[in-house]
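In the current project phase, the collection of sequences with tokenised folds has grown. A sample record is quoted in full directly below:
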Amino acid sequence: MPIYYAIFETRAGWVGLTRSNASISHVVLPQTSPDQVLALLHTTNAQLDENAFGDLPQRLMQYFDDRKVEFESIIDWTQVSAFDVAVWQATSTIPYGQTRSYGWVAAQIGKPKAARAVGQALGRNPTPILIPCHRVITSSGKLGGFSSGIDMKQTLLDTERNAK
């Protein structure tokens, strides 16, 4: 099964995508150079094909231009646990520009005591923005963790709050 990748520039920096078949498998959030994105994409045996992602690159560029964008991309969940899928699906229901707590997500999936496990599942999210894990914060209102760093999490939240 061929794997494709694309790297493109947004206002926030260089972004990368990979996909297999018709499913998105990885999103690399803005970096300062295409080489950094390439290193994070793990594109061994992947083919560069910027047309393989439909309008997703354009939507991500709009997103980083502070424009409200909805993401309905098909995500590759074939190698993912049922728990992670449940967490990511619940997270995807959080409205644009809003936040919910890890405990809220845990309650949504019927495991109200699993807030810590929710955080771990969100840390494994390979498709940030598409699955908006940045919208999940602590119950006290602090940002909590984020696989791309707290500064990036704040940037994504600010981007959505400033969207037109």
Remarks:
- The helical segments are 34-41, 56-63, 82-91, 102-108, 115-123, 150-161.
- The mean pLDDT is 93.
- Residues 123 and 147 are 6 Å apart (CA to CA).
